[in-house]
Amino acid sequence: MRLNHRKDIRFEDFGRVECSEVSPMAGILNDISYTGCKVHYDVPVVLNMENDYEISIKLPRITGGTFQLIVHPRWINTQEDGSCDIGFNFLPSPDRAKLESYVNNLMKDMDSDNLKLLIG
């Protein structure tokens, strides 16, 4: 368990994140909360910090686990090799209720061995 100074509990999770406006290659979901997520890209991305983006998050953990969400980038951390991590905030979205239900289930399963909780 890691402690981070953030306002929401974040869960380490795994999923595929697609946003053709940011990258033709899918990103990898690193963590998720009620208010946002962190996505890793192995390739350079095109990101305007002023824009909102529509992303699709596919979660192998659940059947039919695909969410269509509107996000706004909060930060980007780019490495020398061009890979990067991006922090996104969730905005009102078509699948927002589905996302909240998913995070509620993660909260209930917090004691599971295969789930890593990030508090902050």
Quick summary:
The chain contains 1 helix and 8 strands. With 120 residues, the chain is mostly beta strands. It is globular.
Strand percentage lies at over 45%
Class per helix and strand makeup: mainly beta
Q: What would the principal axes of the Cα set say about the shape?
A: globular
Series of H and E elements = EEEEEEEHE
Sheet with the most strands, sense and barrel status: 6 strands, antiparallel, barrel
Strands of the largest sheet, in order across it? 2-3-4-7-6-5
List the helices and strands and how they pair.
Blueprint: E1 2-3, E2 10-19, E3 23-32, E4 36-41, E5 53-58, E6 66-78, E7 84-91, H1 96-108, E8 116-119
Parallel strand pairs: 1-8
Antiparallel strand pairs: 2-3, 2-5, 2-8, 3-4, 4-7, 5-6, 6-7
